[in-house]
Amino acid sequence: MSMSYAVKNLVQGSQELIAFRIGDQEFCVNIMSVREIRGWTPATPMPHAPAYVMGIVNLRGAVLPIVDLSARLGMGEAEPTPRYVIIVAHMRERVVGLLVEAVSDILTITDENIQPVPEVSSDLERQCARGILAIDKRMICLIDLDWLFPEKESEAA
Amino acid sequence: MDMNEIKEIFFQECEEQLAELESGLLKLNDGDRDPETVNAVFRAVHSIKGGAGAFGLDDLVSFAHVFETTLDCVRSNKLEPTQDVLKVMLKSADVLADLVAASRDGGSVDETRTRGLVKELEALAHGDVPSPASHEAPKPAAKAPAAAPKAESPKPTDDSGFQPIPFTFDDFGSDEPAIEGSTYDIMFKPRRELYSKGNEAALLLRDLSRIGEMSINCDATALPALDKMDPEGSYFGWTISIKTAKSEDDLRAVFEFAEWDCDLEVKPSEAESSDEELPMIPVPFDLSALDDAPAVDDKAEETLAAAVAAAETASNVAKAAGAAARAEKKETAAAAAAQNNAAAAAAAAGQTIRVDLDRVDRLINLVGELVINQAMLSQSVVENDATGTSAVNIGLEELQQLTREIQDSVMAIRAQPVKPVFQRMSRIVREVADMVGKSIRLVTEGENTEVDKTVIDKIAEPLTHMIRNAVDHGIETPEKREAAGKDPEGTIKLTAKHRSGRILIELADDGGGINRERVKQKAIDNDLIAPDANLSDEEIDNLIFAPGFSTADTISDISGRGVGMDVVKRSIQALGGRISISSRPGLGSTFTMSLPLTLAVLDGMVVTVAGQTLVVPLTAIVETLQPEASAIHSFGATQRLISIRNSFCPLVDVGRILNFRSTQANPVEGVALLVESEGGGQRALMVDAIQGQRQVVIKSLEANYTHVPGIAAATILGDGRVALILDVDAVVAASRGQSLKAEMSLAATG
Amino acid sequence: MKKKVLTVDDSRTIRNMLLVTLNNAGFETIQAEDGVEGLEVLEGCNPDVIVTDINMPRLDGFGFIEGVRRNEKYRAVPILVLTTESDAEKKNRARQAGATGWIVKPFDPAKLIDAIERVTA
User: Above 0.85 for ipTM, yes or no?
Assistant: First the structure.
């Protein structure tokens, strides 16, 4: 199963986001970064990888690393079931798969909808988010994709 | 396409021309006297000069020009290409390469050296035959003939009188020239050759009319009766009076292309005195126009139109000759056709096209995926129909065959001859030999052996290092060689050939060979082996590849840059290759490198480790063993050794090293892969089971992830899952820890 | 109608420069890499003018010009020799072979166009 989203003529200043669920919290990423959404397939584990790197899978001949977003956010390692999906996203010059429970929504917002991240004590939460959205009484955290994954040749070793 | 892209093309082309130049010069050096070799050498320099001029690379133009001039002397047999002459030329080729590099990358070249060679080249062109001793110390005053830097003055690079076209139609198209200038009388009578060379009298008159105000008088008196007329003859002549601000030379320049094929007279009008202010006197139509300038203009225009029409008639007449002359020219045409056919056949023999590397890589990637896809398909069919007899099965087998052939063909596209790398080596031999005062000849063989481009790109560096080593340490000084009864000139032989799906590169010198006593002592001094180690000759020779080993007693400028043969070996191994040395005292040493033909696919052994599938490059594996309990020996608290034919080899649990399991596996339940490691010693890598052997397509991990220690790359297996390719050297290095000395001596004595 | 130029030069750099210069000036450009290819290409392309190098492998500029002049159909096509040759003797040989005119490399685009205009109607 795989979906792709065409970016329509957006109103000036508006953007589309893909929202997804991890545990009981909602997060989102900009749709422009998302290449496709795939079903979960078992990943080949990588030696010496951080716990949130589940391993690598074959994406039409290319090697795609899978990041367990729950683990990355410090919310415990995911135990994926076939219902889980992988959001294939561009970050800088890399393509990475994000493992999430389910895609929950596609949102069209304007910049005004995005609130700054409140001053919380934990570095992790402050760094991972680009902003906070309040939509229909829900709180959705806009993930900063660049933060997700270590720079090349750094942490992973 | 813009100028920057063209410039890039130019530099690419320079590389090709430089290679052509060097190989030609080396051929001449070997006694080749084929005129086409000399021509090719000349063309290479000539072509570099031509392009360099277009980009205003003046230093390059100046040097290329001097070089070209001297080469032209060789080409016209004025200069005998003796060894001494060629020595200067080879050095000049090196300088030319440096100048190209400096023009491309910025930076400077050794000007003293350049000037010195300019002097030497000029001396050669003037017939001064060099003596071997006369190569040095030219005074820095010498200067190459200056090249005009500006594009608007295309340069004649000498004074032979061949001037560029001085087009100066600045007032082109201006209808009302406010002419201040002089009046000239021109007599122009074309000969028939003018037309046969594609010139047109009408066009010349048209051009002339653009640079001044003129009146024309057509002289058709020579025109014979129609039946007597030669259709290709020239019967018209013109007298022109022109008033122009341009000089007489400018007027003559209009006829530049035609002047050999016509009678031409250009002189200041006699009607005009030295008084520049006198109005123009049109001749011969209307002297009364003196007082009536507009009338003159009209008249002149009419006259001009008539004259041009006449000229056009003349050229049409000439053109009409085609049909009339056809019959008698048939023979010529047939001959030309035959020549064309021969040319076409010659062209077909070695036709090539240029393809962007990205396109080839994309194709290779696609074929890689096709291979994986085909394997996946086969696997699922086999799973569903184990009998293997159905039509589907047979079709699949054919598909597999075809896929393999497509893959081979695609890989062949990237295959390139090793020639360019070999050619680079000859310069290194020259330069290093000069530096250390040795006389050395590089002989190459099998330069056309092909290997994947990525491999070629990566062997240059280790090969360079080995060549430097051979020149610096391998070959003795001329004195030593003479004393040993050898030719004072040493020989290094570089050979490439294909052998069982790999490329074999051999580097042989006829020097003194490895001094085993010294190597052994050095290894003991450097704690690489135990003082009492009992090593075979071969083992001693291979010690030079051990990390931290350097054979030179004194670190020299040439090969002592902190890089040892261990680094060479490592880079060869990183390419999936192996290197070994054999040496005979007094007779020389031979290094043998065996490399894969491509880095895109790899022959691997597919193994299972802790439930994971891994691929181990086949080239690293010496043999596989089923360990017996009696062969496993504990060594200290954590180490285990396996005895193989009375030698002890450390066991490395791949699963542990990669952190796939927390406790060591029981060796008896698994399989040991005996691998060759960097230091010359061996390791037994423990894996759980062997699944089989297959060729795999190498996929980069770095593209989307990062480098993973112990893992060389990834690949995709028949079931579509990703498997990791083991980096054997890294795993062995990780297992080595601190116990280097013990292991080396164990491996060596074993 | 666009004027058609056949260029014959073994240097990729010069071929590309010619191509850019001529295309920018509104000419249609056909290219060949040496004299042999030039003669092959000539048949199908019917050029208004030919620009050729002298020093080329297989068949040099002199041979190429002679080949064109021997061709019944193209013997009146203007041929400009484009070369760095600064030797008067080369110039003569080109003329004897049947060259219409010449241009010294490196060429200024405007001058190349002028020279072509000069030999074509």
Answer: no
